[in-house]
Design a protein that fits this description.
Helices cover 46% and strands 17% of the residues. By secondary structure, it is α/β, with parallel strands linked by helices. The chain folds into two domains: 219 residues, Response regulator (Rossmann fold), CATH 3.40.50; 170 residues, Rossmann fold. The strands form three sheets. It has a seven-stranded mixed β-sheet with strand order 7-6-8-9-10-14-15. Helix 2 links the parallel strand 1 and strand 2. The longest helix is centred in the first third of the chain and has 25 residues.
Length: 424
């Protein structure tokens, strides 16, 4: 009996050891390889993006995952460096066997990673970077973006300036933006759209600081000397905060109307400047905590606050959207390894997102792989509903999704060979 008892114990132990191994073999995971800056001026964008992506993954996995798969996020600090990010992306693909590349904040990094995506035929979901080149000039089959690009923002900005010119005539304009693709794209696209919408203007200055410049004093004094009626800013993140704080002692915002249609309305700007932030600045971003006032947006903002103890910067909603886009594509295809079928699933995809106002649902344009969304532009007003900010945006102007897209002639002139081939 004793021998039989020990045999039974040994068998039980062996079975216990086998169960985890069998369960592990049966686990099915969709791996998402994320790259975001987690330190420096852009670090908050990365922290918020990862937090929102994790929030979306928890929601999806909590409901059983997708087609028997659980979603898993692998995240690395991109350091906002293209060369380093390329190395990490290749490791993700060749060693970690990720199904998707995901994220990035800097358009410089995005432009580098889209080449990796193309080389390895690995789908890259862009959640924050905004250079239009990625969905026009450099578009390739495996790239999709789930937040507005600079063309959409600048088209909305041009329409806003057209309305302001009718209400209170202005003549001169100047631009300050970072000296790389993202900054130059904004300025070129703003001028293109001002011309397209028949706005008369005269350029009196262009200023090109490096990304993360420590001192904007020389630029500020030049702007004051040039006396533009309108100053368009293409700065973002900590650069916007630094510029505004350094410009305050010079009274710049009493001398010119400050407009930043793409990223100036990020919550980070409001939370970092408090009562110092001038009223009446014309700003926008890719998501707003207080617009639209839908239950979906209120829930997203509330859930993010519960998870992190802070209100989200706009990058968070882009990452949240990206995870849900992946889940919807895998749900349709049923296999995260079938890249070609997934491409088809993303093209034309409809996504109801927190930033969508009632009556509109975001969708991915099947031609450019760019998400199509409504854009709201507001003015800084007193608002203490989202502390530590004491300013938020209000006095909204809403621009329809279709009216801010690049027209066909723009795509034909600037599009990649891949895009032009699809237009024939």
């Amino acid at each position: 009996m004793r021998g039989k008892a020990w045999a039974l114990v040994a068998l039980a132990l062996a079975m216990a050891m086998l169960v985890p191994a069998v369960a592990g073999a049966e686990d099915k995971v969709v791996k998402i390889g994320a790259l975001y800056p987690m330190t420096g001026r852009a670090g908050l964008y990365g922290l918020d993006s990862v937090a929102a992506a994790e929030m979306a993954i928890a929601e999806i996995n909590g409901k059983g995952g997708v087609k028997g798969y659980k979603l898993e996020l692998i995240s690395t600090d991109s350091q906002a460096k293209p060369d380093y990010s390329v190395q990490v992306a290749k490791r993700y693909i060749t060693s970690d066997n990720v199904h998707f590349l995901f994220g990035v904040v800097s358009s410089g990094v995005g432009l580098a990673l889209t080449e990796v995506s193309k080389q390895y035929k690995k789908i890259f979901i862009g959640t924050d970077h905004a250079s239009t080149q990625l969905t026009v000039d450099k578009l390739q089959p495996y790239y999709f973006r789930v937040s507005n690009n600079t063309f959409q923002s600048m088209a909305a900005g041009a329409l806003d300036l057209k309305e302001r010119q009718k209400a209170k005539p202005w003549q001169t304009i100047a631009y300050i933006g970072p000296d790389y693709a993202y900054g130059h794209d904004q300025w070129n696209e703003l001028k293109y759209n001002l011309d397209r919408f028949g706005v008369k203007y005269k350029v009196v200055g262009e200023y090109w600081p490096k990304l993360a410049a420590p001192d904007y004093t020389a630029f500020i004094t030049s702007i004051i000397k040039d006396k533009p009626d309108i100053l368009i800013s293409g700065l973002w993140g900590g650069d916007t905060v630094a510029f505004i704080k350094q410009a305050l002692p010079y009274g710049l915002f009493q001398k010119t109307l400050f407009c930043s249609p793409d990223a100036g309305g990020n919550y980070e700007v409001m939370s970092a400047t408090g009562d110092e932030l001038a009223l009446g600045l014309v700003l926008s971003a890719r998501h707003h905590n207080n617009w639209p006032g839908t239950e979906a947006n209120k829930k997203f903002v509330s859930d993010f606050f519960k998870k992190t103890g802070r209100y989200p910067s706009y990058s968070a909603e882009g990452a949240y959207a990206g995870v849900y886009a992946i889940a919807q594509a895998v749900e349709k295809v049923g296999n995260p390894d079938d890249a070609e079928a997934l491409v088809k699933a993303f093209e034309g995809m409809k996504l109801k997102l927190p930033e969508d106002p009632d009556g509109f649902t975001s969708y991915i344009d099947p031609l450019t792989h760019q998400i199509v969304q409504v854009q709201a532009i507001g003015e800084t007003v007193a608002n203490k509903d989202f502390p530590p900010a004491t300013r938020m945006l209000g006095n909204w102007k809403i621009y329809k999704a279709q009216e801010i897209l690049p027209p066909p002639e723009y795509l034909k002139e600037h599009g990649s060979d891949y895009l032009k081939g699809r237009m024939k």
